[in-house]
Design goal:
Elements lengths: L10 H6 L10 E8 L5 E4 L2 E8 L4 H10 L3 E7 L16 H12 L4 E6 L13 E2 L2 E2 L1 H18 L3 E4 L6 H11 L8 E6 L6 H7 L19 H13 L3 E5 L5 H10 L4 E5 L1 H12 L5 H15 L3 E4 L2 H10 L1
Parallel strand pairs: 1-3, 1-4, 1-12, 4-5, 5-8, 9-10, 10-11, 11-12
Antiparallel strand pairs: 2-3, 6-7
The protein binds ligand PBG.
């Protein structure tokens, strides 16, 4: 008789037959950068995650390096917002400043930048508004300006998150024609219109002031469409394809892993993080175990890369062994 319990007898044999192993190399840590000086402010719905201005961020970057987390993704909290998100295209804007600062002082860090307008527009939508909706192709033209501002500042990789049709092809063309053919693009290929982004929108002051994002982000009910979205991004030249959020969409992560020959990223988003933190604060769950189980499930589903606010704490657990 085959007895599965034989291979569960001790920690050593369990580790030997373990199918999924998390590593600190899997993680990307999100950073919220404030243009206003002198800021280190904890985000209320995301305990342990802070907004930083560049004059205060070094302790955070030192800690990441110390923990072996070498990849960060940058989000902006600019001083000025307007209808078109002008600051997003400013070559001296907060993200170009942050890229230059990090690449100069922490050359060992790999810097990815978010390419989107929602953090820069006064209405909170991900592009230019015409007739109460985001105008796809005018937004593409502005995304091209944003990507060049980041490329000139020395960004290592760009990650467009706005779900405009044709973004990847448009950015790839723009980068290639300006001498940046070496900069990879991580597409937010399959991004659902999700309530799990709530705490992020607090963090980045990017909640839409009217309507919602359902005319550009995907319907959570759709699985076949996810393959179509990812196929478009791959055809247009995405180097990495992402699924977001992660936990309610593990089936989608697996579909993409089985279908496409590209590294798969998953974004373990703010609401997923907030739920773990809130339950832990109440003493209802074992936070560390729930965190590691969650991250393991995302990797087991097929993610090669995990963008997560848990990265620092998970790195500490992995280091301890
Ligand atoms: C949009 C963007 C969002 C997140 C990252 N980039 C949210 C949105 O669509 O409002 C969410 C990340 C998270 O919830 O952790 N540029």
């Amino acid at each position: 008789m085959f007895r599965p319990r034989r291979l569960r007898k001790s920690p050593v044999i369990r580790r030997l037959v373990r199918e999924t192993n998390l590593s600190v190399n899997d993680f990307i840590y999100p950073l919220f950068i404030e243009e206003k000086a002198g800021i280190k402010k904890e985000i209320a719905s995301m305990p342990g995650v802070y907004r930083y201005s560049l004059d205060r961020i070094s302790t955070e970057l030192d800690e990441l390096v110390e923990l072996g987390i070498h990849t960060v993704i940058l989000f902006a909290i600019p001083l000025e917002k307007d209808a078109i998100g002008s600051e997003a295209m400013n070559k001296q804007g907060i993200i170009p400043q942050a890229i230059r600062f990090i690449k100069k002082n922490y050359p060992q860090l790999y810097v990815i930048s978010d390419i989107c307008f929602c953090e820069y527009t006064d209405h909170g939508h991900c592009g230019i508004i015409h007739d109460n909706d985001v105008d796809n192709d005018e937004t593409l033209a502005n995304l091209n300006k944003q990507v060049i501002a980041h490329a000139e500042a020395g960004v290592d990789m760009v990650a467009p998150s706005g779900m405009m049709d044709g973004t990847i092809g448009s950015l790839r063309y723009e980068l290639d024609n300006n001498g940046y053919s070496q900069i990879p693009i991580m597409g937010y290929s399959v991004k659902y219109a999700s309530a799990f982004y709530g705490p992020f929108r607090d963090a980045a002051d990017s909640a839409p002031t009217f309507g919602d994002r359902r005319t550009y982000q995907m319907d959570p009910a759709n699985r076949t469409e996810a393959r179509r979205e990812a196929a478009l991004d791959v055809e247009e030249g995405a180097d990495i394809i992402m699924v977001k959020p992660a936990l309610a969409y593990l089936d989608i992560i697996r579909d993409l892993k089985n279908t496409f020959d590209r590294p798969i990223a998953a974004y373990n988003v703010s609401g997923e993080y907030a739920m773990v933190k809130a339950a832990a604060e109440k003493g209802w769950i074992d936070e560390e175990r729930v965190m590691m189980e969650t991250l393991t499930s995302i990797k087991r589903a097929g993610a090669d890369i995990i963008i997560t606010y848990h990265a620092k704490e998970a790195a500490k657990v992995l280091k301890r062994g």
